Amino acid sequence: MSGGDKSSRFHNVTWNKVPNAWQVQLWGPQTKRNQTIGYYASELDAARAYDCAAVKLLGLGTKRNFPAEVISEPPATVRGRKSSRFTGVSWTKNCSAWKAYLWNLHTERKQHIGLYDTEEAAAMAYVCAAVELHGPDWPNLNFPGEFITKAPASLGDAASSRYKGVSRRKDSLVWDVRLHIPKSMHLGDLQAKRMQHIGRYDSEVDAAMALDCAAAQLHGPHWPKLNFRGKVITKPPESRGDEQRQLKASR
Fold first, then answer.
1. Rounded to whole angstroms, how far apart are CA atoms 83 and 105?
2. CA separation for the pair 95, 98 (Å, rounded)
3. Three-state SS for 200?
4. Contact 166/206 with Cβ under 8 angstroms?
5. CA angle 142, 146, 149 (to 5 degrees)
6. Which residues contact 183 (CB under 8 A, 6 or more apart)?
7. Rg (CA), the chain
8. What is the CA 92 to chain-centroid distance, rounded?
9. Which one, out of 109, 139, 178, 223, has a CA that is 20 to 30 A from the CA of 238?
10. What is the pTM of this model?
11. Residue partners of 227: CB distance under 8 A and separation at least 6
């Protein structure tokens, strides 16, 4: 079958031209709506992925594309997908993180659970939230047979840092660096403030190094509150603002 066709010879498999892949959907008896299982490069992979998810949710007696086969592991989804191999998980490009979400049967709305570094952590968070909201009989599609009682910490939970002068911005998931400056001092040509904003960084370690670089210039290399004592940092890591300015200059 050609990629231009919208339908498939297999049950619950359709061609989706936006991700240029075969989409698999499964009707959820609890949610009373179709949920996307994933996107696949081949029609056969998509059909087998449906069978795998359908058996986990509805049992071996449900209608399958390959009744004679027992598929325990689904095929790999296509790279660059918007969905995940797990239920209730998707990739958010603007935050560079995995998002866990859940359809709330009571409010009939999609409920945001949190953002996570790994796909597996987001999938575990989905299971915990689903059981808490809908009860222990809610089917665990992500990790069948496993009992997950505690959800992983989301990126938003990590608002503080193990380094001095560093904190995470919950709205953008980057690390903020601020340095306390005595009122009697000046930083460059700027009138000193109580807390001077140094920059924003994607990495927590880069943020800590930026703090040390600015603090060493202000207080000297032997200041006792440096994050990396004994390490001389003469040039700070590139901040988010530096990257944006370079991008504008290249245009």
1. 21
2. 8
3. strand
4. no
5. 95
6. 192, 194
7. 25
8. 6
9. 223
10. 0.41
11. 163, 164, 165, 166, 208, 209, 211, 212
